[in-house]
Amino acid sequence: MALRSRLRSALRKVLTAVHAGDKAAAQQVYKAAVPEIDRLVSKGILRKTRAARYKSRLNAKVKGMA
């Protein structure tokens, strides 16, 4: 359960940085979130397709910032 909670926290940090408009912080937090997502896949908690979808959507939000 702790790993899933860490995932949610990581996703929330990225989205918070994106909504705040801080691109540098968003990129930094995104780079920290990717290993967390991959860790859940390796533990079998998250399917790899869902992990790829999370990473793709977060990366699109970060890159889409002005």
CATH fold field value: Methane Monooxygenase Hydroxylase, Chain G, domain 1
Helical proportion, percent range: over 70%
Shape: globular
Provide the number of structural domains. 1
Structural class: mainly alpha
pLDDT below 50 for ≥5 consecutive residues: which ranges?
none
Count of discrete alpha- or pi-helical segments spanning 4 or more residues: 3
By DSSP, the count of extended strands is: 0
Order of helices and strands: HHH
| CATH-defined architecture | Up-down Bundle
Any idea what the CATH superfamily is called?
A: Ribosomal protein S20
End-to-end gap: 36 Å
Task: Describe this entry's structure for a reader.
With 66 residues, the protein is mostly helical. It has a single domain (2-63), classed as Ribosomal protein S20 (Methane Monooxygenase Hydroxylase, Chain G, domain 1, Up-down Bundle). It is built from three helices and no strands. Helix 1 (2-20) runs antiparallel to helix 2, helix 1 (2-20) packs parallel to helix 3 and helix 2 runs antiparallel to helix 3. The longest helix is centred in the middle third of the chain and has 21 residues, at 23-43. It is globular, with a radius of gyration of 12 Å. The relative contact order is 0.19.
